[in-house]
Amino acid sequence: MNTEYTDAMSSSTASNRSLEYHVLNLFYDNEDNCALTALINNVRFHVIAETAKVRHSRIGQEYAKLLQAVKEGSLEDDLPSSDSGIDVRDSSDEDEAKLVAHGEDAEEALQRWMLSPLQSDIDEYAPIQSESAQISLAEWFDLPSHWYNLETKDKALHAIELEPDEDLHRRISKLLPEISIPKYIREVDAPFYQPADLIVSACSNVPPPYRPTRIQLSDSKDILFLKLVDPGQPQCTKREISILDRIAKKGLHDHIRCPRLKGIVTSGNDRTKIMGFLQTDIPNPVPLTIKLDAEVPQKLRDHWASETQRMKDVLHEHSIVWGDAKADNFMVDENDELWIIDFGGSYTEGWVDPKLNESMEGDDMGVDKIVNALHDPVANTWDPDTEKSFGGSPEINAKDKKRKAEHQDQEEEEPVVKKQRQSSAEQQKVYCYCDGPSSGRMIACDSVDCEREWFHFDCVGISEPPSDDREWFCEDCEAAE
Known about the structure:
Blueprint: E1 2-5, H1 9-16, E2 22-28, E3 34-40, E4 43-49, H2 57-71, H3 93-99, H4 106-115, H5 119-125, H6 137-140, E5 145-153, E6 156-162, H7 166-173, E7 179-180, H8 183-186, E8 192-193, E9 198-204, E10 211-217, E11 223-228, H9 234-249, E12 261-267, E13 270-279, E14 286-287, H10 298-317, E15 330-332, E16 338-340, H11 360-375, H12 377-380, E17 382-383, E18 388-389, H13 394-411, H14 415-420, H15 424-428, E19 442-444, E20 454-456, H16 457-460, H17 475-480
Parallel strand pairs: 4-5, 8-12
Antiparallel strand pairs: 1-6, 2-3, 3-4, 5-6, 7-13, 9-10, 10-11, 11-13, 12-13, 14-15, 15-16, 17-18, 19-20
Helix pairs in contact: 2-4, 10-11
């Protein structure tokens, strides 16, 4: 079909504001070509805007301005980070107001501009549904799809529907979350489910993108939280599943409040590939970041401060590093109880120094900042240098800068001097066959029982890591197999 964008931008935008859609993906390249995938009434619309095809002076200028505004980042900056993957859409009205940007931001304006020429096709292909029918997770990722190119003709913008070819199918396949998993993940103490056996109970776009978040088992009324994998960060999923399994096996759920691993979601029938995992659904979670507010009762904040320290200490007592310690990775439920989440690792600038990535010292640093912010949110939840909330007080930031400067100085030091400056904890922690500290490029052994855990590339004779779908074992663990 060929639908036209009206000559009056203002009237088109106004009429299209009522269109309800959900963004599955928004992408633009260095040549200012843009691609949007939107879900409307359980139908996917893929819209491609190529600079060469929207060259008409007025329309081209509108597109250029909208895309430039998106590039400049003129979006609300108060949303929780997306890496935790927790659905916070059921927050209270007060908390929801802090989580969702008001009005039309630059990204939304561009999305609506791209969808405007499709209005008649949307009415035909995706009529409003009186009641949403239950669909399986497999069906959700295989919904009807339509592809379009935007083009200018006769001073108007048109949407040209495309016949799906191999390239278009390849693009849509990239929207499917999937990673390969090694043997130690396949052997965790959790059931495996196929997408066809899971019913989508709820979806969310907070944090984006829009995705299924709550799942019901086909033979049960229980609702579980679904955390989809990020194909670009497969190690985060492997780490989190492994740690949740360790927490359960060590009986730590009796001591800390964190989601239980409830199942692994395969990608079809193949157990070597997964699209996510199921865990306890936290009732109406709100990121602790939102609670770093002087209006929240001091007694509650003091209690949460004590709990953050205690939970972190319990993990460390059992040799478990949390990783990515920050307020967004604590959740407050509807009963004001605190949950610790997200064991995928890494770090967030402003909370943990990069040099302390996935270390106990990094956990200590992040939790100390959380505690300070809870005790005194006015003094400790604003970073004037980055103009971002929850980055720490000026005093904390000054310490971070000093710490970073010291690490930069260490990079220039001789190895012997550098080793002398390491903390005693760092000196004691050794890896690899060489019994040396963590340094340079390293690879993890895929055996969950490996005593050395990490190995230097040089020591094991490799220059590049193996592909993600291949397991790698050190000599000792390979012999034990």
